[in-house]
Amino acid sequence: MKVSDQSSTPRRRIxxxxxxxxxxxxxLRSYSSNRIAGWPSLAGSSSREDSTTPSVAFTTxxxxxxxxxxxxxxxxxxxxxSPDRWARTASLAGSTGRTLGNRVVSPTFPARxxxxxxxxxxxxxxxxxxxxxxxxxxxFALARGERLACGVxxxxxxxxxxxxxxxxxxxxxxxxxxxxxxxxxxxxxxHELYGxxxxxxxxxxxxxxxxxxxxxxxxxxxxxxxxxxxxxxxxTGLIDRLTRLxxxxxxxEEILLxxxxxxxxxxxxxxxxxxxxxxxxTPFGRxxxxxxxxxxxxxxxxxxxxxxxxxxxxxxxxxxxGHHAVPDSGMGFCMLANIAIALRAVRRTHNxxxxxxxxxxxxxxxxxxxxxxEDPNVLALSLHQDRFFPPNSGFVTERGAGAGFGxxxxxxLPPGTGTGGYLEATRRVVLPAxxxxxxxxxxxxxxxxxxxxxxLGRMMLTPRAYREMARMVLDAAADLCDGRVLCVHxxxxxxxxxxxxxxxxxxxxxxxxxxxxxxxxxDNMGQQELQPHQDAAIKATEALLGDI
Length: 548
Hints:
Strand order of the largest sheet: 7-6-10-15-14-11-12-13
CATH architecture of the domain at 186-543: 3-Layer(aba) Sandwich
Radius of gyration: 25 Å
Number of helices: 17
Number of strands: 15
CATH class of the domain at 186-543: Alpha Beta
CATH topology of the domain at 186-543: Arginase, Chain A
CATH superfamily of the domain at 186-543: Histone deacetylase domain
Strand content: 5-15%
């Protein structure tokens, strides 16, 4: 099968697979008869796992990158009933293997998975059992390292009836209904230098000063929360499902697409000694600008990967944050406007006309709003705590200017808003705004300081709330822009709790069906449901959607 390197969008790539599947019925039968080169004694094998990936003819594909399938194609694939359905499914699953040069080779299968694979494909091809139709996509999922509600070994042993999403099937024929687990390719940006951004020995937000009785401690914007996000991804194994993207520093030219020469000059001058971003509350140590460049460049790298079709979506775990930085100054821990720089950069080099930015940080995304204030091709939508930070911005009346009027949308929510309020705001404001705007790319300013334990927020969100919000946005993206979603990490200062909130969002991006169970329980706190005064705030912004 030959797939053009220009097949950059998920829909084009799935169409290419459908036009020329390399896995034919003949190859399937060869599979089930254990005649695959490099896999001797496949059936019933109990030997150790192969240390190298065998050379299998049908999984060698002349493409630059592995074929991936986005969430936007999942419904179409589930509805497919043509005879070569499973051939295409197997070909797609095989395409998630390693890349060797410009060749894609099949993944390494453990011995028990190879045995199950042979049995499942034999059943599917020969029509001897409906079990093959149910098991086959799950076998490929196992090969990709996915966890399933009901494992293949359990099925082979006849331990219990199959389950779908953890629930037993309702009738005796339900197991014959084909269900495909759609592989999601999620890019992931992180660099250890992000944890080396030095914000000093502040006591919370105040600089240490013994004359004022302020003991040295640590700044609230310190490495712990984001470092623990990354480490949780490693410990849970979720990182194995992500495609690592290496960040690179943003250039002067890219930074100056957003910031003034004066702001860049001040940061450059203080880079060797340490200093402040410009507002008196954005400290950085030696080499701070170098790390800030790497954060902005990480956002650019992730945006490029999504737009070029190398991944379906991406998460950039960058530091320092960026959504408060304005063109002529840093602000609120943000030295450079990471998202704004990334969007200005990729809009020059890639075919992306309209971008929607959905900011869920508890603080108003004033920097992003300022940069795109008069731009009708960028929707700047911010959900934040009312009159918090900056205290004089984020009002419903701030709506853009000139050609950009109506494309700035603010939803200031009352302190104490919980899951019910945020989910209702997403349904009634965020999703309708996205549908009216019809973006080519959706960028989420992923701040997690609206969580129930955050020291810099007074909201009550939980991982479940973040998961549901992410799922709604991702579903909208599947309909509007081929699933192209980029999340760029912003705030979140409860180091023990933020990792579980971020993990929930990344699970949704990666298509994980069995989420990691977080150890805290705040979903049953009082006032989590939508309150009348919160509903009134949502209605005020809802009334402005007609101007988009």
